[in-house]
């Protein structure tokens, strides 16, 4: 667990060899510093800028960031990637293999697989993004309150958390969404919204737990006691001291879980519960392609590959961010 | 003037036999993101049976790294032993393959660490951990090992040893845990015991108990004791000889009685002067200005020159070798004689 | 600084301060099974301009005492008055105003500063919380002044804590502590985590600030030589109670309580020529747990003078015959063979 205040491990008198040079190079006014040690730390360097500095050099981060940028552009401006209309389907072309015209062939309905996949990016990514944001806010808030106040508040919230934690995500998602079915006439945003809400209700617990445990760790730090000793109230302490120091692991987990949510949406849509036609998403596309996997594998290939790459990219991003923020790996 | 950077160390030569432990020009590097840190930069010392050598230094001086390198348990990477020899009864341990080296560890040379809570495994009972020394090194059966363990625990004065042998480390107080670690380290009757800040984390009264225990054990078993510390008081109490380290090198070597009264290196002098003294109450403590250097950017010339009140041009240009100032006293300072006389 | 010149009226009056932490078992329904008696009846007075050192080993309750005096914990019983005002009797805004007068410096320079705030923000936070002390436009200048006063470069105001060394961070903590010009500063082991050569720098700084701003210190530490150097009066704490209290000279040269004597005899003296000159008292065993302290005198289980009376009657902290300062021992007697005379 990353404890940002332990970024540079304490050198208790005589106990530790302080090999790390950064703490040595700042000079004191009025006393001579070692002239042989050139001043390296001239610019103020926050922990975030240190982390960013590391990230920029991490090939995993660069690769995953590039992929994600491409995906975001794909979601926002699908027209950049294809000039075909994904809804234009000709049954005569049903299940045709890839050709120069259509790089990934046509699906059961005769729609261009490539085009549908490109346009499907938007829904999939939006679901992932909104769910992650919602889960971070809800889970983060509950976790922070439980961790900071402790006592009976923590007991109650933790019991609630455990109850929700016990519900399997996919099963719960199926149940919730089956209870509120969508018909083809429902606007796209409503369908997406339902999926987001269903997933949020079920998945806020993991982020809440992470936030709670980091907050519990951070609240015992001396600098929090110092703020209380100065007369700072709970809002100030939460805002300036606890939250900034507890948020790093939560953000790391959120980036990883974004990829997972995209995968979960695909599963739900595959089961016919999540997004449904006419909404285009990768899950929907995979669902459509599932019946003919053996005869026409090309229909599955492109949406499946893109889904896998997206999930992988977010997980890699989360990994790289976690490494950059983790003091122990420095 | 004899230098001490040769084999064997002059102290032992005078005694007429090979020393028990002879460290000769040890070099250890740490390869970090920000460059190569020379943690140990040519350290030599020797140890005889029954003798206590104190290695004194603050954080960043390289004293703990020296100990780890001698034991052969340096984290590598990022640390690498890049030169020198560590001779135990004449045998250079650094030249041995790891499995042969391991035979010496624990059996001939043992180590006691500062923080017993993190040095002991929290999930195994203490009796099991101490017993491991017997089971692994001597192939003893569990029953026999248990008997020896109780003996050992009683020897290090852990009360109710028989009842507590199956307790876990967290059930003991800090002082007791330290005794457990000492028990583990003397289990196989080593010839050399390295104690790295053994009492820094302990209360003063407990510290006294532990130091007395170490003294007893050393006398009883004729062990050579290397005491690594930053505490000038502890050194004065127990050590025979002292080596003062700074920025990876030994700055001064002497017999303990002489160094306190008349130091021959400005760093030692500065340290001694910064300790609160009764007769100087009410006056400012004489502090060494500045900070220790970063080990990746050691200043040219003498490592101490930026903080030294007596520094001259030569100190910034030429690194002083560790030379014998008067018989038996070594100092790495161009003006060692003047510091010794007090004429500077 | 001679003690008598600048020491004045009583600024802090602590009476029978008690703090028990309840021990409970059970997860859902907690059962109260006992108490950790961390602080169990501590009384003393702090005068203006004086440094009162409090020494004790781990488990003696000095950290809890610091937290109580900082109003970070509420006492189980007892009181403390700052210039006549009951510090535990105020709430809300009044308490916040009171906090301006009592501040704290922590032990660990690495965890006492928020790593995500700049040094300027850290030192300036007191002014954010107490805007009446300094107008907004003045704050930056004040922070820069504070940095200079503690010996740091004011240009480093936008740097982050990890860019400084341990000793420098401690100075930042000190700057934060004096920002509101408090009257009392609780120093909770302020130099224990620092190297010897840096300790001296910080101790000198603390003394300079005391002279300059007329501060009163409660200096809590376990390093007896540092405490001796900086303190005017010293109190010795054992298992939640004070064993002895007196001027620095009285405690260090004529200790009367057996625990103080054992403590002083155990302190290593950095002078090899005195080996064998002192009587070494090695205490047996470990201190008892504060959850289960001995009856009567707490020290009796390790004391060579203990009798039945010690088990039955709690010795009060009073002046006893033959001793010129207060001690809490039925058989208090000055012993000088445990200290080294220079």
Explain how this protein is built.
The complex is a heterotrimer of chains A (330), B (344) and C (342). Chain A is an all-alpha fold. Chain A has one domain: MetI-like fold, CATH 1.10.3720.10. Chain A has helices spanning 22-25, 47-56, 59-76, 113-149, 151-166, 169-179, 188-219, 222-229, 234-270, 282-290, 298-325. In chain A, helix 4 (113-149) packs antiparallel against helix 5 (151-166). In chain A, 46% of the residues are buried. Chain B has a domain at 10-49 and 65-96 and 229-276 and 286-341: 3-Layer(aba) Sandwich (Rossmann fold), CATH 3.40.50.300. Chain B has helices at residues 10-15, 63-71, 98-104, 116-119, 126-138, 142-155, 161-164, 174-186, 204-221, 232-238, 256-261, 266-273, 313-317, 336-341; strands at residues 21-32, 35-47, 52-56, 79-88, 91-92, 109-112, 192-196, 224-229, 241-246, 249-255, 323-326, 329-331. Chain B has an 8-stranded mixed beta sheet with strand order 6-7-8-3-9-10-12-11, sandwiched between helices. In chain B, strands 2-1-4-5 form a 4-stranded antiparallel beta sheet, with helices on one face. In chain C, the strands form 2 sheets. In chain C, strands 6-7-8-3-9-10-12-11 form an 8-stranded mixed beta sheet, with helices on both faces. Chain C has a 4-stranded antiparallel beta sheet with strand order 2-1-4-5. Chains in contact: A-B, A-C, B-C. At the A-B interface, helix 1 of A face strand 2 and helix 2 of B.
Biggest sheet character of chain C = 8 strands, mixed
**Oligomeric grouping of the chains:** heterotrimer
Helix-strand category of chain A: mainly alpha
Helix content of chain A: 55-70%
Largest interface, Cβ cutoff 8 Å: A-C, 44 and 55 residues
CATH superfamily descriptor of chain C:
P-loop containing nucleotide triphosphate hydrolases
Structural class designation of chain C: alpha/beta
SSE ordering of chain A: HHHHHHHHHHH
Q: What is the CATH fold-level name of chain A?
A: MetI-like fold
Average pLDDT for all residues of chain C: 89
Beta content of chain A comes to under 5%
| Count of helical regions of chain A | 11
Give the second-level CATH assignment, the architecture of chain A.
Orthogonal Bundle
Q: Report strand % of chain C.
A: 15-25%
Report the average pLDDT across residues of chain A: 79
Domains counted in the coordinates of chain A: how many? 1
Stretches of chain A where pLDDT is under 50 for at least 5 consecutive residues are 1-41
Radius of gyration of chain C over alpha carbons? 21 Å
| CATH architecture descriptor text of chain C | 3-Layer(aba) Sandwich
Q: Quote the distance from N terminus to C terminus of chain A.
A: 14 Å
């Amino acid at each position: 667990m990353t404890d940002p205040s332990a970024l540079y491990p304490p050198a208790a008198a005589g106990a530790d060899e302080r090999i790390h040079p950064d703490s040595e190079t700042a000079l004191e006014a009025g006393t001579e510093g070692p002239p042989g040690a050139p001043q390296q730390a001239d610019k103020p360097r926050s922990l975030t800028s240190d982390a960013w500095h590391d990230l920029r050099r991490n090939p995993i981060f660069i690769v995953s960031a590039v992929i994600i940028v491409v995906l975001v552009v794909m979601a926002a401006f699908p027209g950049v990637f294809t000039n075909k209309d994904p809804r234009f389907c000709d049954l005569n072309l049903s299940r045709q293999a890839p050709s120069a015209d259509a790089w990934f062939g046509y699906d059961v309905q005769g729609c261009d697989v490539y085009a549908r996949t490109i346009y499907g990016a938007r829904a999939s990514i939006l679901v992932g993004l909104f769910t992650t944001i919602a889960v971070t806010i809800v889970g983060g808030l509950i976790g922070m309150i439980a961790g900071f106040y402790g006592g009976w508040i923590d007991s109650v919230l933790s019991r609630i958390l455990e109850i929700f934690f016990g519900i399997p995500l996919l099963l719960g998602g199926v149940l919730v969404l089956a209870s509120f079915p969508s018909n083809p006439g429902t606007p796209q945003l409503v369908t997406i919204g339902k999926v987001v809400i269903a997933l949020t209700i079920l998945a806020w617990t993991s982020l809440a737990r992470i936030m709670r445990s980091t907050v519990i760790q951070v609240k015992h730090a001396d600098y929090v006691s110092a703020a209380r000793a100065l007369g700072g109230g709970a809002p100030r302490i939460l805002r300036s001291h606890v939250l900034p120091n507890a948020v790093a692991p939560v953000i790391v987990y959120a980036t990883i879980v974004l990829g997972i949510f995209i995968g979960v949406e695909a599963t739900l849509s595959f089961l016919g519960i999540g997004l449904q036609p006419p909404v285009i998403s990768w899950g929907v596309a995979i669902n459509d392609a599932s019946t003919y996997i053996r005869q026409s594998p090309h229909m599955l290939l492109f949406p499946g590959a893109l889904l896998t790459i997206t999930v992988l990219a977010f997980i890699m991003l989360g990994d790289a961010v976690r490494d950059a923020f983790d003091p122990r790996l420095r | 003037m004899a230098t001490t950077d040769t084999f064997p160390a002059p102290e032992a030569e005078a005694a007429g036999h090979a020393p028990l432990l002879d460290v000769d020009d040890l070099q250890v590097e740490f390869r970090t993101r920000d460059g190569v840190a020379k943690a140990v930069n040519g350290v030599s010392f020797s140890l005889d049976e029954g003798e206590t050598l104190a290695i004194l230094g603050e954080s960043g001086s390289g004293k703990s790294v020296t100990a780890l390198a001698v034991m052969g348990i340096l984290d590598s990477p990022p640390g690498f032993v890049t030169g020198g020899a560590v001779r135990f009864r004449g045998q250079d341990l650094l030249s041995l393959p790891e499995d042969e080296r391991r035979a010496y560890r624990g059996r001939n040379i043992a180590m006691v660490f500062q923080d017993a809570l993190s040095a002991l495994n929290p999930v195994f009972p203490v009796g099991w951990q101490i017993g491991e020394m017997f089971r692994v090194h001597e192939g003893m059966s569990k029953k026999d090992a248990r008997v020896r363990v109780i003996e050992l625990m009683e020897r290090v004065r852990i009360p109710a040893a028989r009842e507590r042998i199956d307790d876990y480390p967290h059930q003991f107080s800090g002082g007791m845990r330290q005794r457990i670690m000492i028990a583990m380290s003397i289990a196989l009757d080593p010839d050399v015991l390295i104690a790295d800040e053994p009492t820094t984390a302990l209360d003063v009264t407990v510290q006294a108990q532990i130091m007395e225990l170490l003294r007893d054990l050393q006398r009883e078993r004729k062990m050579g004791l290397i005491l690594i510390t930053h505490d000038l008081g502890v050194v004065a109490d127990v050590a025979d000889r002292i080596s003062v380290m700074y920025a990876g090198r030994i700055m001064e070597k002497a017999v303990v009685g002489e160094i306190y009264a008349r130091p021959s290196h400005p760093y030692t002098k500065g340290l001694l002067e910064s300790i609160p003294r009764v007769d100087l109450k009410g006056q400012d403590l004489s502090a060494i200005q500045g900070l220790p250097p970063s080990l990746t950017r050691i200043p040219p010339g003498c490592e101490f020159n930026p903080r030294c009140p007596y520094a001259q041009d030569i100190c910034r240009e030429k690194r002083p070798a560790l030379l014998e100032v008067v018989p038996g006293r070594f100092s790495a300072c161009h003006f060692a004689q003047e510091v010794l006389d007090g004429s500077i | 600084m001679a003690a008598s010149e600048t020491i004045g009226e009583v600024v802090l009056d602590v009476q029978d301060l008690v703090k028990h932490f309840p021990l409970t078992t059970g997860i859902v329904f907690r059962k109260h099974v006992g108490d950790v008696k961390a602080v169990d009846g501590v009384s003393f007075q702090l005068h203006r301009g004086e440094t009162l050192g409090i020494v004790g080993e781990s488990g003696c309750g000095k950290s809890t005492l610091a937290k109580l005096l900082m109003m970070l914990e509420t006492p189980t019983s007892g009181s403390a008055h700052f210039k006549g005002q009951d510090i535990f009797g105020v709430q809300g805004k009044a308490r916040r105003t009171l906090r301006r007068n009592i501040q704290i410096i922590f032990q660990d320079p690495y965890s006492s500063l928020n790593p995500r705030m700049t040094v300027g923000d850290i030192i300036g936070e007191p002014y954010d919380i107490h805007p009446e002390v300094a107008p907004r436009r003045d704050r930056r200048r004040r922070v820069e002044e504070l940095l200079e006063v503690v010996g740091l470069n004011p240009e480093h105001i936008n740097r982050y804590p990890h860019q400084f060394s341990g000793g420098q961070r401690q100075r930042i903590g000190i700057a934060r502590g004096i920002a509101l010009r408090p009257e009392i500063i609780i120093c909770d082991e302020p130099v224990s985590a620092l190297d010897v050569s840096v300790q001296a720098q910080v101790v000198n700084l603390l003394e300079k600030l005391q002279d300059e701003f007329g501060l009163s210190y409660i200096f809590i530490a376990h390093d007896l030589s540092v405490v001796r150097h900086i303190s005017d009066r010293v109190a010795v704490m054992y298992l939640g109670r004070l064993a002895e209290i007196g001027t620095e000279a009285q405690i260090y040269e004529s200790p009367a309580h057996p625990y103080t004597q054992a403590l002083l005899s155990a302190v290593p003296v950095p002078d090899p020529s005195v080996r064998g000159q002192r009587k070494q008292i090695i205490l047996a065993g470990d201190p008892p747990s504060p959850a289960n302290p001995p009856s009567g005198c707490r020290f009796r289980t390790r004391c060579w003078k203990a009798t039945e009376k010690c088990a039955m009657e709690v010795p009060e902290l009073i002046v006893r015959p033959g001793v010129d300062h207060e001690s809490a021992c039925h058989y208090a007697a000055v012993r000088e063979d445990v200290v080294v005379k220079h």
